[in-house]
User: Fold this.
Amino acid sequence: MKIVLVAGARPNFMKIAPIIHAILKAKESGKDISYRLVHTGQHYDEKLSKQFFDQLNIPKPHVNLEVGSGSHATQTAAIMVAFEQYLVAHPADLVLVVGDVNSTMAAAIVAKKLMIKVAHVEAGIRSFDRKMPEEINRLATDAICDLFYTTSTWAGENLIKEGISPNQIEFVGNTMIDTLRANEGRFIEPECFYKEGLVSGQYIASTLHRPSNVDDPQNLKVLLDTICKMAGAKKVVFPCHPRTKAKVDALGALPSNLVILEPMGYLQFMYLIKHAYAVVTDSGGIQEETTVLGIPCMTLRDSTERPETVSEGSNVLVGTNPLDLEPYFQTLDGGGWKQGQIPAKWDGKTSDRIIEHILSL
Ligand code: UD1
Assistant:
């Protein structure tokens, strides 16, 4: 079984790491399985890419397609052209894609047109908001894949409604949580604890990078001002995605309790989340991580493709009007935040299940 794994952007790396480790384990125990890792180069900054490979012990990719940034069409097309050439030169039995970034969709289309089977890890989740590029990537990828590895039974139901046969769907759990569980004992206190005098449980961690939240300067300013006001005497620690950083830099004066930082490594960022009083974010993956760690999470979006983090976990969907944060902060400060639970099969063993299933085919 020759597998080509594709990863391109930061949230892919946490999902691909435990799958590679599971493949290597299976190979060591004598199974006929091998892989090649293709990095598309969608994310190329050291802080968004290389440090994740180093920290998560991901072996060096066999190739980096170095596509870089561009409009969605430019980036997707560049990945398709380069990945097609690679796949023709290095045929595989299966191409495995993860998540919902442009690299995911581009690689799936290329592989299918070369008649290679495609497996999608994190298939079937839906925000039902087609204004999100990730939703388009999810829909297009799942429309053509052969194997669907899901994080919830709900994701499987979505796929069945879209005409996928139940035989193609495997509810395996969440590979991102494999990475969290495998590295929990290795989280590193980030430098900002010392530099900013942070105290565990007494700061808000925040990340924002969705165009709908950060692209309009006025909107971004109101968002940051409101989060910082709600935080009161607590600091708001904000590791910035490069696209957000450029927007924040252009804003001028910022609230005095706002701490703007560079993107962090995985081990530092998870330490920051694990020790936060609460998290305010528009990320997808952080909703899952806070649910597993039991940290109150307020998601500044109108929809979530991860509804189990709200129905079972510690996450709430606030919407995109920052003023709607107020009642949630009141509940939190009053000690009334809900007690969440960890969704089924988010147990750190998902990648083993995926590889076992692939080997059984
Ligand atoms: C991508 C994913 C998003 C994910 C996010 C996490 C898509 C459609 N979106 O968004 O789902 O939540 O990654 O990080 O795939 N840039 C850099 N350095 C880099 C990469 C990007 O500075 O290494 C800047 C460039 O100005 C670029 C912009 O960020 O134009 C956007 O990058 P892009 O890869 O297009 O999407 P993200 O916003 O990172």
